[in-house]
Amino acid sequence: MAEQQWLSSYAPGVPATVDVPDESLFDMMEHSAARFAPQVALDFYGSTTTYAALADQVVQAAEALRRLGVEKGDRVALVLPNCPQHVVAFYAVLRLGGIVVEHNPLYTAGELRHQLADHGAEVAVVWDKVVPTVQEVAPQTSLQTVVAVDLTAALPLAKRLMLRLPIAKARAARAAMTGPAPGAARWERLVSQSPPLDPDHPRPSSGDVALLQYTGGTTGTPKGAILTHRNLRANALQGRAWVPGLVDGEETIYAVLPLFHAYGLTLCLTFAMSIGATLVLFPRFDVDQVLEAMKRRAATFLPAVPPIYQRLATTARERGVDLTSVRFGISGAMALPREVADLWERESGGLLVEGYGMTETSPVALGNPVSQARRVGTVGVPFPSTEIRIVDPDDPSVDRGPGERGELLLRGPQVFSGYWRQPEATAGVLLPGGWLRTGDIVEMAADGFVTVVDRIKELIITGGFNVYPSEVETALRQIDGVADVAVVGLPTESGGEEVVAAVVLEPGSRLDAEGVRAASREYLTGYKVPHRVVIVEELPRSLIGKVLHRQVRESLLSPEGTAATA
């Protein structure tokens, strides 16, 4: 799509392309440390780390890891919530030319075992509370050394002392943050006792692999996406170019998204560091903690997901907390409802725009202009240096025109180089010419704005008709008494599929399953009306709030799910 008609919708000052420097992510962080040495890089419950101190800690940690045997190309597993040690470990691994592999610290033993065995890391830096889980699976993997991180070590002194008070509340708070880790080395001791890494130690190059980021696995077994320093550096630059109103060295970004997720990693670990921002770290999203932090060190830029914006805006309004410092909000991972965007913008006075991305694109590829040209309900237009095509899902060589549904293809410097040790899976998504098959069905307007219709793998074919789950979900949410919904396709005895909806009702609702079906006929043509409805208490979600449709489907296929259907 050479004409790139979307460029006219860019916010003033946004370039059509970005020049990606020939530097590593460590070089990027080091340059920021030189430019903004005395400024606060990290804030953790009020304990601060300057850019100069961060750079010093990174090279000390790099030497500590080197002494543990980490060399260029080695994978190092990070199993950590958001905390200063996470940021330090991330850049320390990169300084050695190692490859970071991020893991959700709330994973089960089975989930961790699969990923650790797949990438073969011999060293893992782990939150001490989950060290026993990692140690449990270590014998079935290549893991040799587990280094335990105590989150409380990064707290301000007053908070550390409070956690040691002999009262139940203090004991409970301490138990939530730290735990015993017998048999593991201690991160704080290793780093504090290490000298800085020799400055002449070989540095990574921009083409080296920086990260293995495992995909969410909502449609199958997770795969490790291979992302280079250049991929991630490019996406940080694209993000910076997209918001020309930012001021380097003066922004405060809240890390309410997990750093182990591609979205949080880029917007907080790389983008924030690239512009010399202060990163306020939250181990998990807690509306009370975030609003308390707003009084201490107010955010100016907030990357989040729609449920977070909704809860923050609603609670801030109830408590009279000022959100007007937040000039820019970037929403991703799921559709941004208009009512949430309107609520947030009323309370903050800032702009909230929706973007689109995936792990394989580092992750952001499209975004709504950070201007009044934004279009709620769409994922916007391609980022600088990003090209798109809309094609026939069955034949990607055939392009679809404006207004026609098709699969979204992407090309740009942020596109990954493949899946770790899975050449067949890689060949299935990377086409000649560097085009990435996203697996998303979209429509593009004549001016280039893109609307996501659905996932190819989640498309339901019933009676020969195509049904897009998101379309049915949108309709059901309009029914009074429906709080949330997930729609999936389930097999029928005849070998086809039927539309099934798992529905969460609002408290006090008098609806039942058949009532939901009857009401849906007002919004949906006959073949799109759910054949069955299951009333559930809640829907399974990922840590960032995305509904896990695969788990919904498995639950509905179980005997309990079948018995509950109408």
Automatic annotation (TrEMBL):
Q: Which residues form the AMP-dependent synthetase/ligase domain?
A: 30-420
> What name has this protein been given in UniProt?
Long-chain acyl-CoA synthetase
Pfam families named among the record's database cross-references: AMP-binding (PF00501), AMP-binding_C (PF13193)
Any single GO molecular-function term of the entry would be:
ligase activity, forming carbon-sulfur bonds
Q: Would you say which domain of life the source belongs to?
A: Bacteria
Gene3D superfamilies xref list: 3.30.300.30, N-terminal domain of ligase-like (3.40.50.12780)
Q: Where is the AMP-binding enzyme C-terminal domain?
A: 471-546
